[in-house]
Amino acid sequence: MMTVIEKQYMDSVININRMMRKAQDAEPDWEQRRYEIAFAVYMERRKLLTSREDDVKDAVAEADLLIAELKKTQEKK
Fold first, then answer.
1. Separation of alpha carbons 14 and 5, rounded Å
2. pLDDT band at residue 24 under the 50/70/90 scheme
3. How many domains does the chain have?
4. CA angle 5-24-21, nearest 5°?
């Protein structure tokens, strides 16, 4: 026989497991990833002595290339 606390704990674990499974099956937020990648590339490029306009364009281009490659690998799964 389970106590009330044990039952609540078991229900919580089951719910967390369900939420984690849903999160794993969900499509990535590609726009969020694109922003994060572009920002990271931009910050690295700023360490070089290049124009900001070029840095922005290069960062977005790099993010787009990486996202395209990530989508390809995800489709193969």
1. 14
2. low
3. 1
4. 30
Predicted local distance difference test score (pLDDT) of residue 64: 92
* The pTM of the whole model exceeds 0.85: no
Residue 66: which domain range? 4-76
pLDDT single digits (tens) 35-76: 998 889 888 888 887 788 888 888 899 999 999 988 887 777
Q: Map 4-73 to HEC letters.
A: HHHHHHHHHHHHHHHHHHHHHHCCCCHHHHHHHHHHHHHHHHCCCCCCHHHHHHHHHHHHHHHHHHHHHH
Gap between the Cα atoms of 64 and 28, Å rounded: 15
> Can you tell me the distance from the alpha carbon of 17 to that of 10, in angstroms, rounded to the nearest whole number?
11
